[in-house]
Design goal:
InterPro entries: Cyt_c-like_dom_sf, Cyt_c_Planctomycete-type, DUF1549, DUF1553
Helix content: 40-55%
Strand order of the largest sheet: 1-2
Radius of gyration: 35 Å
Number of strands: 8
Distance between the termini: 37 Å
GO molecular function: electron transfer activity; heme binding
Strand content: under 5%
Shape: globular
Protein name: Planctomycete cytochrome C
Largest sheet: 2 strands, antiparallel
Amino acid sequence: MHQKPFVTIGLIVAGISFLLPQVAVSGQPAEPPHFETHVRAIFKKHCFHCHGEEEHPEGSLDLRLVRFMHDGGDSGPSIVPGAAAESVLYQRMRDGEMPPDESKLCSEEELEIVRQWIDSGATTLRPEPESLDGGLFITEEERSHWSLQPIVRPAVPEVAATESVSNPIDAFLLAKLEEKGFGFSPRAAPNALIRRLHIDLHGLPPTPQAVEAFTAENDQVAWQQWIDRLLSEHEYGERWARHWLDVAGYADSEGYNDVDAPRPHAWRYRDYVIRAFNNDKPFDRFIHEQLAGDEMISTPLNNLSDEDAELLTATGFLRMAPDGTGGAVDDVNVARNATIADTVTIVSSSLMAMTVGCAQCHDHRYDPISHEDYFRFRAIFEPGFDWQKWRSPPKRLVSLYTDAMRAEAAKVEAEAKKLDATRIAKQTEFIDATFEKQLEKLPEETHELARETHKTPVKERTDEQKALIKKYPKLNVTASSLYLYDRKASDELKAMAAEAKKVRDTKPKQEFVRALTEVPGRVPVTQLFYRGDHEQPKQELQPGGLTVVSMNVDLPEVPSNDTALPTTGRRLAFARRLTDPKHPLTARALVNRIWMHHFGRGLVTSPNDFGILGQLPSHPELLDWLASEFIDSGWSLKHIHRLILSSTAWQQQLRVAPDQIAADPDNELYGGARLLRLDAEAIRDSMLAIADQINSKPFGPAIPVMPDPVGRFVIGIENSSAGRPGAVIDMKGEDLRRSVYVQVRRSQPLSVLEAFDQPIMSPNCDLRRPSTSSTQSLMMLNSDQVLEFSRLLAERLQRDAADDLDTQIELAWRLIFARACSDDERAAAKELVAEQSAIFATQPAYKADAKKKPQRTPDQEALATLCQMLFSSNEFLYVD
């Protein structure tokens, strides 16, 4: 189950093209290449691993500075300025001898740049440093990368079509559109707009009544009121929490290996996130609590206040990585360090949009993140994980029992023990009476020995006493055998025991939270692992953020041990560093994700990578304006929602202008709405809502998933001891709850969601990539669940629209598509229902007989077929 992070081929190609911007199609650069802007990135990617990072570079050759190349190594100077053909370095690269690993061979384009650079004199743009002090040399070019610059609120641009500007978002987008001679597309139709809004904020379709009400109003005042209404409802938190749970890697199982042990208490973190979104918890506070909630509490772990219990629950964010250390693993130390590595990946990708994990084994090949930086970053979390004094998942659970609850439990137990004492006394009375009755049946000379035997504990009986019992087994009257002699007495004792149990059941239930905590007083040492190998520890390192970030902006440092706190304070300091308004990454990364979920595409299309291999922002000024606005609003997520949703840009219809589509085929200029497929959860939840079956119960333990007889994973409670295949435990409506509450089992993804790209958390999901495949169509055609939803919708149509097929069809269209049915569509639907009804009427399952009435009539099943067809249509599965 456990997988290493990887870089996609598309990102590598994009990264290489960014690193080599000056090479023309002919292979000739627009100007002579320089080391800092062209050549160094090639060497860093292919060569620094052996010739720069090592304490003793191979062949004594260090390629990090040009003057080191002049000095050369064991083979003498590696370059001859002005003569690439005579330079050993170029010769080795040209002949494929270096780098030695075939998978790392330089491309022809890269080789040509190195040749041109040496032939043009092997120049640098500026004097090089006197020494590198054994650390990573970060160039001015690396420091000047767009995402590492301070966030500066840009001026809102002026545009010609001022009537199209609802707020500054529109001005930034329109300025670029007007540069190309374009403008915004017209506003979407009211029914399409209100459906888009409901799906966006709630993940559920609007009711026909909502569509009708909005269509009647359809002005900007009503639009703002509708946005506020949906943002205030509980369904908003359920929808948008799912987005955050993706990047947090939320799962209800441990993963790592095939055992994939369940996490019975992980759901508390999910509920915490839902509440945080619904309450519009300031996002900086949200980050603080998730990274360091345990460092913010004021009550002891064995007597947490409600507020501190929530803070501790928030740290579940740091307990989401795959973790197999609760069971048998091949190498426990590998498993422990893998959990820490995945946690670093989750934190850095979700909150910083940087691939810090790529520096686990060596300096980052593209970004200015050193091997030492990685372990300084890891040191922030080391006291909470402490791989050498590891606490397995069960041992990390924190009880939510308080002193008041313990006192109440003790009071209840005392009352129950009184009932126990009464029962035991009564039990002794019954046993003695029964024994005497049995004794009367024996010879009188045995009575004395029998009574002594009866009073003597079994383990202490003599051979003579044992022989007596063996000869007269009916004398062995005990609590467990009393029912054989006196059923009435036995039943009375059972009733008394049940009464005691009933009292004990009133005890406050002991609950647990899956949290991250530190062991007070223990400050583990973090060492650099040579090549990422924990068996090769090197120098000790102190906690810290990324060096390159600190070079560009002044941020608080992370202490090794904050003596003002009972913990080290490392994670709390790091959280405050991340949310410092001067930090260049956090706010940009977050608003980019918000934008991505609203528009289906981020302003930066690589939401987890703002580094060299990531994509450049399409609208950098807008990104910075949003980041600044986010911070200035008090990190209010709902404020950014309102801005985006009230913009003209978001309310556009799909593009129809051919010239605009031809000039901007990927809609990078946002000159119209983007056609978006519903995500997996929204598909299932929408079908439930349309069928009027959705259970809106909030919060609580995960709804279990189990394999069905054909191997698909469905909602249900596995009943392995049912005695016959197919036995199902009644879920009592729990199976109809929203998908956010369904168990996220890494090894058992719910089939209906998996088909529509619900991600497997390994360790998290930065971006869902919607696919189009035949399995989706097959799922909609053959899934028992889809068929059941279709039948339930048909029942609703017949219930709400009586026996009028025309009215039923019209209602189906309004429920599923949020629009009226056209005359042609109505005629085609009626024809389909008639054809299907005639087919079903010929089948035995739909014919009544004297023994059994069919479950459904041919007309009912035909209408369900129509509903299934509508659920399977693109118009339902996509939102425009």
